[in-house]
Structure formats: structure tokens, C-alpha cells
Specification:
- The chain is mainly α and 130 residues long.
- The protein has a single domain (6-129), classed as Up-down Bundle (Rhopdopsin 7-helix transmembrane proteins).
- It has helices at residues 6-36, 43-63, 70-103, 109-129.
- Helix 3 runs antiparallel to helix 4.
- The longest helix has 34 residues, at 70-103.
- The radius of gyration is 18 Å and the shape is elongated.
Length: 130
């Protein structure tokens, strides 16, 4: 594969900014809808909102690529890793809890949610620091 020309790199950079901006708008809309519509405040939506917040963190890190600064680059790397790893953990939590609900093994799902919440926060923090 040959190297990209400066024009192609510029097109890729602008495409990244545009798509990340659209993602940011969608995530803010979903979080706002959850915050202002009382009927959406269910257990399942809390799990989905947690995943959306993880994606929001990653989107912010993607948009930080606009600036060329050493400190912003470090923050971008940290936020990017935190967003990706917490997204993986939240997706795993949602899958696990969905499987448990499907099998009807869990009666008090809210206690499991709190356990999974603290586990995911701990794993995300440790993985971002590594």
C-alpha cells in the first residue's frame, strides 16, 4: 500500500471530525432524552445510557485530535482508552445481565447492577492507567 497524499490525509481528517461531531450530537440527544423523559428511566435504559456515556468519552477523545499539543495528545490517549475499555465492559455487563434475565436466574437485578457498576468502573480505571 502506498503512502497517502496530504490531500487524502486532509479528507480523512475532515471525515473523522464530521462523523465524530454527528456521533456527539446523537449521544447528547440520547442522554438529554433520558434525563427529561421520566418514562425512560428504567433499568435497561440505565445500562444503555452507561454505554452511551462510554461512547461519548471516546468521541470527545476523537475530536481532540484537531489540536497538535503534547498534553492534549496524552489526554486524548487516556480518554480514548478509557472510553473504549469502559464500552467493552458495559457491553459485557449488558450481555451478561440480559443472559441472566433470559434464564430467569436473577430475582433482584438491581443489586447485580450495582455490583457490575463498581466492577466496570474499577476495570475501566485500571485499564486506562495501564
Amino acid at each position: 500500500m502506498e503512502d497517502l497524499t496530504p490531500q487524502q490525509l486532509s479528507i480523512l481528517s475532515w471525515a473523522n471530525i464530521i462523523v465524530s461531531g454527528l456521533s456527539l450530537i446523537g449521544e447528547i440527544f440520547m442522554i438529554g432524552t433520558y434525563a427529561y423523559v421520566p418514562t425512560l428511566k428504567t433499568f435497561a435504559m440505565r445500562l444503555i445510557i452507561s454505554l452511551i456515556v462510554s461512547d461519548l468519552i471516546y468521541t470527545i477523545s476523537t475530536l481532540m485530535s484537531i489540536w497538535n499539543n503534547e498534553y492534549i495528545c496524552i489526554a486524548q490517549g487516556f480518554l480514548g482508552q478509557l472510553g473504549v475499555m469502559s464500552g467493552v465492559v458495559w457491553f459485557s455487563c449488558i450481555s451478561y445481565i440480559s443472559c441472566l434475565q433470559f434464564r430467569r436466574l436473577v430475582r433482584d437485578i438491581d443489586k447485580k447492577f450495582k455490583t457490575m457498576l463498581w466492577l466496570s468502573v474499577g476495570i475501566s480505571t485500571v485499564s486506562a492507567l495501564v
